UniProtKB/TrEMBL annotation, chain A:
The lineage of its organism: Bacteria, Bacillati, Actinomycetota, Actinomycetes, Micrococcales. This is Uncharacterized protein. InterPro entries: AosR (IPR018561). It comes from Demequina mangrovi.
UniProtKB/TrEMBL annotation, chain B:
GO terms for biological process: protein catabolic process; proteolysis. The keyword Hydrolase applies. This is ATP-dependent Clp protease adaptor protein ClpS. It comes from the Bacteria.
Length: 210, 95
């Protein structure tokens, strides 16, 4: 994976096929969480997780009613309460904005998924799509962070300490500590990769922006 | 933050005008400092140095008031912040 750099007025990163597949998959999962139809369902074999499916169905049930605060903390992070201390203000905000927020987020994720699912190793983002892509990457990172239980800056630091220990153990060829959960480490590495990609994307200078 | 000096055109005196609602952006462990700065530049039209100062306020104090005005205006701003993935709320200004 190579970070985003500026080229001919666009931001360009390089990801191999497996990296594209992994990121496209989590992007599609976040789309499902937001109630989207499965991205590329017609030619993709990935089935939604059961919990994602349940979440999608719950969204369908809610269609006739005013939207309610999501039970899933990851979805709540994508569609937060606008006024945690005032339930009426939060509910009114949700009623006014949630549908549009969902569709904005889904459209951005879908475009990112399409780009990652195209052939080739380059991921080219034209200047006018940089912020929308950075926003979609944020949504994916918010969901991964929620699954990792990152609620404070200290949680994020603790995760990095864990990742370093796991990487050191791997370098020395010794087994990782029993208390390190491989699935959590995998998710943590994905989170770091997405963070690194987003940081490079936001830092690229494409004229107009200093 | 929710109160500001305004010149009354008839009397020529400064009147305290209460802005009834504010948009607050909160710190979170996920959003990158560079990204938050750019969102503030792009959306609120802040100069880079001002956007950075607001981002630092969010990061160091846990929150920053980015705007004040009517509830409807603040709902628009909060929706925009949520679309960028920032954690924002609207509050009644406490004058």
């Amino acid at each position: 994976m190579r970070a985003f750099v500026a080229r001919d007025g666009a931001a360009v990163a390089t990801l191999d096929e497996e990296e594209r597949l992994v990121i496209a998959r989590i992007v599609a999962d976040v789309g499902l969480l937001l109630g989207a139809e499965s991205f590329g369902a017609e030619h993709h074999s990935t089935l939604p997780h059961r919990e994602d499916l349940a979440e999608s169905l719950r969204f369908l049930e809610d269609l006739d009613d005013a939207p309610v605060e999501p039970d899933d903390p990851a979805l709540l992070r994508l569609l937060p309460n606008a006024s945690p201390r005032d339930r009426d203000v939060s509910d009114e905000f949700r009623r006014l904005t949630e549908e549009e927020l969902r569709s904005t987020k889904i459209a951005r994720l879908r475009r990112m998924w399409d780009e990652l699912s195209a052939d080739g190793t380059e991921w080219v983002i034209p200047a006018e799509h940089v912020m929308a892509t950075a926003a979609a990457l944020t949504d994916v990172r918010l969901v991964v962070a929620s699954r990792l239980g990152l609620e404070s800056d200290q949680d994020a630091e603790a995760l990095h300490a864990e990742l370093s220990r796991a990487a050191e153990a791997a370098d020395r060829g010794v087994p990782v500590d029993a208390d390190i959960d491989p699935e959590r480490m995998w998710l943590g590495m994905l989170y770091d990769a997405l963070t690194w990609l987003q940081e490079s994307l936001v830092s690229v200078t494409l004229g107009g922006h200093a | 933050m929710s109160t500001q000096e305004r010149l009354d055109p008839r009397t020529g005196t400064a009147a305290r005008v209460r802005e009834p609602w504010v948009t607050v952006v909160w710190n979170d462990p996920v959003n990158l400092m560079s990204y938050v700065t750019r969102v503030f530049q792009e959306y609120f039209g802040l100069a880079r140095a001002d956007a950075e100062a607001r981002m630092r306020e969010v990061h160091e104090n846990g929150r920053s008031v980015l705007s004040s005005g009517s509830r409807e205006q603040m709902e628009v701003h909060v929706q925009a912040m949520h679309s960028y993935g920032l954690w924002a709320t609207l509050e009644r200004g406490d004058g």
